[in-house]
Amino acid sequence: MSVADIPSESAPAAPRPGLAPPFDPELAAALAALGGGAGGPITPENLAARQERDVASRPRPTLRELRADGRFEVAELRVPRAPDGPDVTLVSARPAGIPRPLPLLYYLHGGGMIMGNAWSVVPQLLREWALPLELAVISVEYRLAPRTRHPGPLEDCYAGFVWAAEHAAELGIDADRIVLGGKSAGGGLAAALALLTRDRGGPAPIGQLLLCPMLDDRGTSFSSHQMAGLDTWDRTSNATAWQALLGDRYGAADLSPYAAPARATDLSGLPPAYLDVGSAETFRDEDVAYAQALWQAGGQAELHVWPGAFHGFDTLAPRSALARDAREARLRWLRRILAR
User: Fold this and answer.
1) Cα–Cα distance measured from residue 187 to residue 251, given in angstroms and rounded to the nearest whole number
2) Element (H, E) at 179
3) Can you state the percent helix, strand and coil of the chain, rounding each to 5?
4) Residue 53 host element (H or E)
5) Phi, psi at residue 100, to the nearest 5°?
6) Which pLDDT tens digits describe the chain residue by residue (340 residues)?
7) Which of 17, 73, 211, 333 has the highest CB neighbour number within 10 Å of its CB?
8) DSSP result, 271-335
9) Which residues of 67-104 are buried (b: 16+ CB within 10 A; e: fewer)?
10) Nearest residue to 107 via CA among 97, 120, 98
11) Torsion on CA atoms 313, 317, 322, 325, rounded to nearest 10
């Protein structure tokens, strides 16, 4: 089944050619220098090869490297996955030499549910958030699609989250100050985890940091059509990833909101959210709609739409003015949430 096969009464008219918002000039130059960034869309036919390439090329720092000559305390933890199966691996890290319990950022990496690993994101988490905020971080090595389909990856994240909250004292974390966070696919998982722990009566996070989150499997938004073939993660790659995660449930009318949070009809009782997204990326409209739905449910959400930004702009152009602004806005929000 392709995206075009999924019926939707709310599917938008296809945008007219030439009406895509332009990339920020600084970001456009960075993208051109990288030869377009991601090397073309991911399809079912090239998925296995792209996954192999990602494993070979994505950094996976060792624990010794992550400890940075003693600046950080870092450990790999293996916790039981409910109800059975192999353990979930968590990478736990915090600034060294702080004896008191620290707030925790429980973080889920990106990669479209089909790529990425828990180790590669930790250096940035430590540099940008753990040090300035005196924050502990846990990064989750959840199973990837299509080898593991929904709900496997989410259940991995939930098992690790519950375990971390229950073992807060031995981990040196403050169980009353846990923020869920993630980027892209990880942002979607963080949103789903907030829904799941609310409905199961699990640990209560104080915030959800959703960076360009992947929320909607249906591919019917205006921006998903508008940025087709232009964004670094376009509707072709997105459809491939959702198909890998959902299998024959892809596009189902009754798909669970724990699989695709944009399907949720009840967003009440969720922790305050931070959402950001680019104006020139595939996920723009689904992320804006999710923020609006949180407001309509009586919740709190801070939304940033970065003008002319493509998906992953702050990774591909980290020194750009827009990337600096985005990092500063996220840091300010985290500081406010943790101070409550």
Assistant:
1) 20
2) strand 173-183
3) 40, 15, 45
4) helix 47-57
5) -80, 160
6) 443 334 344 455 666 656 899 999 999 999 999 886 557 899 999 999 999 999 999 999 999 999 999 999 999 999 998 666 789 999 999 999 999 999 999 999 999 999 999 999 999 999 999 999 999 999 999 999 999 999 999 999 999 999 999 999 999 999 999 999 999 999 999 999 999 999 999 999 999 999 999 999 999 999 999 999 999 999 999 999 999 999 999 999 999 999 999 999 999 999 999 999 999 999 999 999 999 999 999 999 999 999 999 999 999 999 999 999 999 999 999 999 999 8
7) 211
8) PPEEEEEETTSTTHHHHHHHHHHHHHTT--EEEEEETT--TTHHHHSTTSHHHHHHHHHHHHHHH
9) beeeebbbeebebebeeeeeebbbbbbbbeeeeebbbb
10) 120
11) 100
Question: 275, 303 in Cβ contact below 8 A?
Answer: yes
Rg for the chain, CA atoms, rounded? 19
The CA-based dihedral angle spanning residues 25, 30, 35, 40, taken in that order and rounded to the nearest 10 degrees: -80
CA distances from 154 to 72, 79, 160, 174 (A): 28, 15, 10, 23
- Residue for token digits 């997204």? 277
What phi, psi does 103 have (nearest 5°)? -65, 160
d(C-alpha 94, C-alpha 168), whole Å: 13
Using CA atoms, how far residue 227 sits from 9, 46, 218, in Å, is 21, 21, 15
Both structure tokens of 127: 């540099």
Cβ partners under 8 Å of residue 68, min gap 6: 126
In the chain, the N- to C-terminal Cα span, in Å, equals 46
